Amino acid sequence: MLKLRSSGLSCGVCANFRITIPRCYMNSKTTSSIDVKPKVPLYLRPPSFSASLSELTKWHKWAKNLASSVGSSFINLDNGPDSTLLRRELNWLLQDLIELQHRLVILSRLESGNNENPDVSVALRAPLEEMYCVWRQRIEKRRPFQYVVGCEHWRDLVLSVQEGVLIPRPETEVIIDLVEGVALNNAPELAQSFWADLGTGSGAIAIATARALATHARGDACGRVIATDLSPVAVAVATSNVQRYGLQDVVEVRKGSWFEPLKDVQGKLAGVLSNPPYIPSGDISGLQAEVGQHEPILALDGGISGTNDLLHLIDGVASMLKPGGFFAFETNGEQQCKFLVEYIENEKPGSFRDMNIVSDFAGIQRFLSQLPQPGMEVYNLKLPIKSARCPWSNNDEVHVVEYEGLTSITVRREIFSFKLSTISCRRLNPLSFSTLAPVLQTRAEDD
Amino acid sequence: MATAAMGGGFMNQIMRSNTVSLVGKAAAPPWPWPLKGFQLYCCSNTNNNNSNTYLTLKDEELMRQCELNTFKASGPGGQHRNKRESAVRLKHLPTGIIAQAVEDRSQHMNRASALARLRTLIALKVRNPVSLESYSPPPELLQILPRNSTHRRSDSGPQIGPNNPKFILGMQALLDLIFAVDGSISDAAKLLGMSTGALSRLILSDDSLWKAVNKLRASKGMKPLK
């Protein structure tokens, strides 16, 4: 039988749950630890521990009372969680702790306070002492629940997270809706190219995007995702999440800052996605304790106005995307979205197409994105520019325009621009470029 | 074995506790049809958009008929927050039925749960007219009937239970019939080619179905099924 101590448990008891002092994160920009071993989340550990039902009930009562004792004090302090939310988290903790086979039975036993068979043994994924310890950390140290259980449920994924990695937010789930609903549905060919998730953290956006690409890809030509992050912990955790979903051939995690590790795919990306740090530095100290004292400042602090990294992304993204490409960045809200749109209009005229501001599920204007351009594909054809002639050149609807060494031929609503040996084709009607290209090529050779 | 002794009854309790957050109320529905306290939505006959089709819609199509609400975050949200504000509330605009889900751990999954609940609520609350003369049970109803029903044909397949997502389609058709015969289980059983006892057992197999039938019977001054 386990001896349960309801007080005086030091955190040293639980070796698996080191508390990292928040101050560490302040230095995370300069730390360079290489070998980071990702922790195994609670729900994936083997159920090699056990406790009697009465011991578990005792712990559950204690934990529930601790949660209830919070009342609304955290809300008043820093808009943190209230008792209701903490008790919901306690249920989730139990779900992860108890082995699947008997989970429902045990959980309802705990809820109903049924006293039958108190000696029955329950298989657990961690010792009960550790549960006393981590629930204390949750309430007293305000350690985020997701770090306590080592995972976060996000869309249909369960992602490992740990100290040093930003916990993916429900708001960010919308980015994947944009990838699917806006980008891939309008321009399915984007599903076959390279995508990038910058500052990937746990790998959430990269993994969900890879799965969306697989759903939308035609044939076996599935796109790939490159995920970058500056933090070695994030790189290690994202890599392990990618492996857990069996996507190691589709998602590549690279260590480095923003576009730096992406030199080889410059101008080739079909989509660029990011949830960069966007909180204004002045707001960091007022964040709820779970965020401000435990999550990596590197992933939160966006400089004085919060837009340092977003501006860096805007500056770099145009040269990274291939023609017709898509991007979506998460922002702090309406103010930042408007500021960035103005910045693009004033500082980057001509670099971007239709900008789109998208609200999150709470109605806050959260995402800035560039709509994809359907049918924009780049073909490499051996085609001498001057000799190119369109087979419909006697048609009124055909226009041949030449300027600065660039030839653009408009066929009805189709635009071909010729530049060196590359043809960009914007296809707006069903007429397929692939049927046009050989004709053009033949004509070019005839001449 | 203690766990065996705790058996299915606990499953039922969980199912019940999950339905606590089910909300079914009308915010000025276009065709309210109150029936002695039991809130009911009925499709007008002139409307070609037969309510029966709601449940045959694909998820995306049903979603398009809904207003999606999430609980407004107080404050800036996003990276500022760790509050798991992933609750979802769906309002089905044609009927005004509201379904919500809060207990899942992601926004995405709560949306799926809310949609599944909305389907159940539509089955429970939206009634279609049934012609009792020349009544023959529709295929979706045959699917949930036990083998010994004389109406079941060889192509009706095995009986599907409440855990099968297709169950609610049959449940809706069964409720349509029970409403049409004013709550009489024996009349409904006759039309379905089965014994009254067998139909009672089928109704009792699903909590929400059982409650809906008893509400109707109570409104007619009949004894509840037990």
Automatic annotation (TrEMBL), chain A:
It comes from the Eukaryota. Keywords: Methyltransferase, S-adenosyl-L-methionine, Transferase. InterPro entries: DNA_methylase_N6_adenine_CS, HemK-like, RF_glutamine_MTase_cyano, SAM-dependent_MTases_sf, Small_mtfrase_dom. This is Methyltransferase small domain-containing protein. It holds the Pfam family MTS. The keyword Ribosomal protein does not apply. The keyword Glycoprotein does not apply. It comes from Gossypium arboreum (Tree cotton). Residues 191-278 form the Methyltransferase small domain. The lineage of its organism: Eukaryota, Viridiplantae, Streptophyta, Embryophyta, Tracheophyta.
Automatic annotation (TrEMBL), chain B:
One of its GO terms (molecular function) is translation release factor activity. It holds the Pfam family RF-1. It comes from the Eukaryota. InterPro entries: Pep_chain_release_fac_I (IPR000352), Pep_chain_release_fac_I_sf (IPR045853), Prokaryotic/Mito_RF (IPR050057). Coiled coil: none annotated. GO terms for cellular component: chloroplast. Gene3D superfamilies: 3.30.160.20. Residues 65-123 form the Prokaryotic-type class I peptide chain release factors domain. Belongs to the prokaryotic/mitochondrial release factor family. This is Prokaryotic-type class I peptide chain release factors domain-containing protein. It comes from Gossypium mustelinum. The lineage of its organism: Eukaryota, Viridiplantae, Streptophyta, Embryophyta, Tracheophyta.
